Amino acid sequence: xxxxxxxxxxxxxxxxxxxxxxxxxxxxxxxxxxxxxxxxxxxxxxxxxxxxxxxxxxxxxxxxxxxxxxxxxxxxxxxxxxxxxxxxxxxxxxxxxxxxxxxxxxxxxxxxxxxxxxxxxxxxxxxxxxxxxxxxxxxxxxxxxxxxxxxxxxxxxxxxxxxxxxxxxxxxxxxxxxxxxxxxxxxxxxxxxxxxxxxxxxxxxxxxxxxxxxxxxxxxxxxxxxxxxxxxxxxxxxxxxxxxxxxxxxxxxxxxxxxxxxxxxxxxxxxxxxxxxxxxxxxxxxxxxxxxxxxxxxxxxxxxxxxxxxxxxxxxxxxxxxxxxxxxxxxxxxxxxxxxxxxxxxxxxxxxxxxxxxxxxxxxxxxxxxxxxxxxxxxxxxxxxxxxxxxxxxxxxxxxxxxxxxxxxxxxxxxxxxxxxxxxxxxxxxxxxxxxxxxxxxxxxxxxxxxxxxxxxxxxxxxxxxxxxxxxxxxxxxxxxxxxxxxxxxxxxxxxxxxxxxxxxxxxx
Length: 509
Prior knowledge:
InterPro entries: Ammonium/urea_transptr (IPR029020), Ammonium_transpt (IPR001905), Ammonium_transpt_CS (IPR018047), NH4_transpt_AmtB-like_dom (IPR024041)
Pfam families: Ammonium_transp (PF00909)
Subcellular location: Cell membrane; Membrane
Number of strands: 2
Family: Belongs to the ammonia transporter channel (TC 1.A.11.2) family.
Strand order of the largest sheet: 1-2
Order of helices and strands: HHHHHHHHHHHHHHHHHEE
Keywords: Ammonia transport, Membrane, Transmembrane, Transmembrane helix, Transport
Number of helices: 17
């Protein structure tokens, strides 16, 4: 991780120290100076490793805090009668994901077959630490794996058996996601931009922090889960217009959104893995280095999210006639999901374009979902799958030549963004990535959900769905209600009609 040390040769110092004096004394002085220099140089090398590993460890903590954001966002987006269920699934995503990623996932993601990865990485990390792999790296990659699983849980909320969550989360974090991350992030992955040779379209795929690897994987998995088990009861029973089954707490939605926003500063800038690296030609002479790229990545991430939020705000006002906080929160997250691929290799002005289009991609996919009677309580498939795919295309169009060269090195003439004058090879590689991820996740997760459906392990019985998963599967409700509140109806379960923001159908839980 750290930069290489500078060597000291005593023979080079002797002529400078002798000056006609005793040669033996000069040689002794040269040896003394070099020994002290090597000690100090070694300390700087140690400090470099410490700085890089501390940076990566702190980034892992930030990304892990996104699990709390997912939990709050999911809890606020479902009805009160399903709160305990969705909170428990978020805990299980992290717990099951941690164990299965340790046992199997990391080996599939970063083990090299030529190095005997089965013996070295399955069931543990026997060759840790080493210069390129240390424990913070594993922890950081685990947080990404459970993020993908958390995305999927939102798509199938409010009608899925808990055992199905256990099975799909373990399978996703132990096999499906790690294989994709190996293809595009491992140094020997067939489409990785870090390969030493045989780059896909001479560029590889620049999916820096995972618009495809994380967001599309989670979104496409959720798409198949929601398609196979069908919409929630009451969602499309009206012929004229779909019934909106509103979540019970906009407060939790906003809280979750801000927590995810905070965590994204570990998700995107943290994906550099190292920060102690200068881009200057001579050590100590440059103020510009990886730390600058980290800062720029945080800026592009921020601008994409902010632009998407404001675009959604005014777009939904024009379409629906009112200001909707939950739509704005989803738009913001859609901008983040889109910029995640190219956050490190695009200019800040390009991030604004990314966020603007991401908002319309999300709104368009939501309209399409309603027409196709597709029910995703958190819009996870549309947001992470749709905006993630747009982010991959965006990077193929706007990746900057200088930034690509600084971050990925190798051939200075490697392809970059089509609109930046770099030709279409990077875009072609990214289109391949989209097709491959859709195909792989469809075959694996689609098959898994179909088998669970056939075994009657996927969807809960209709009477349990109407009553709520908390009282039927988790021992009681998440909140305490008085008898009077229950008698009079404590929440709006659905709204419909032309003025769906005004009129509602009141029901108990």
